[in-house]
Amino acid sequence: MVGLEFEVLPESSLKCNDVIEFVLGTPINQVITALQNASKVIRNVEFVYSKEEPFTRDLTITLKNDGIRLIIEPVFQRLKVLIEVYDFKNITLKYCETVFSSPDEEANVDKIEKCFGATHPGVYDEKQKMYLLKWRGVAFCFPAKDSSSVQSTYAHGLGSLHFANSELPFLQRMIIFSGSNPSEPKLPEIPLAAYCGNNHLISVTSVEEYGRITGVKYAFVSEDVSPTSNRKPTEPPRFEKIIRLGDTEQAVLAALGAPSKIFYKSDEKMLIQRGPNQVKIDDKPDMFFNYFTMGSFLAKYFMI
């Protein structure tokens, strides 16, 4: 089996030609759909989440054959701050068309420095017993028993790691993240390519009148598909819309656009319970609008 080749794009993504691309900020449903579409080449995928603490613990999607782990933020459920590669035996990694790790020749400190260019000394992590070389949006971890085995030196203004022994340690872990510090990564915005005509929720609040809840106010971002726009926007426009109890189907569609999916609830069971002598009032089944990317299910009542 030939391993996949991925291109490393710091602070952005891990891309495998036309097969798949993992982009920071992508919603979880699109990540799962992309993996399903690439199921012929990407197999043995594991999805882990916490039933006890679903909104406090990260969700993880692990590509076990390829040694890649995707960390999903639990509240907004987007590809969070980390794309982690923890096993380099079955995949090839390159940066700016330069291969720095392959199954036949795994990366070490020297290869990483030559490929990315050392700009400052590495940092030793006492807890994990490893050295960290980092640049904005990407970090590399190398095993080291103690800090005395590695010395930070400068040469011509560039920082590098000088190992006391002759054997350079091999790369143990690579992290793609948003920001400049992998221990304090930023939650990235949804990439424009991931909108695909969908709305993405920012916040939702109840609307009260005379002490009673009469509706829901949605704040969301959406893809700009204006025909008058001559260039792609740097960020999508934001909207605020109010859906009130009693609004018609047309009013909901005008405010939020087309739903992700429409469900119809059959009334056959209700007809059986009414009995043969009961008059059937309405032949139309209930209609449910599922706005998946906005976390809402709209019918005769709101479900957020």
Automatic annotation (TrEMBL):
Pfam family, one: PHAF1
Any one GO BP annotation for this protein: Golgi to plasma membrane protein transport
A cellular component term, taken from the record's GO annotations: trans-Golgi network
Family: Belongs to the PHAF1 family.
Protein name: Uncharacterized protein
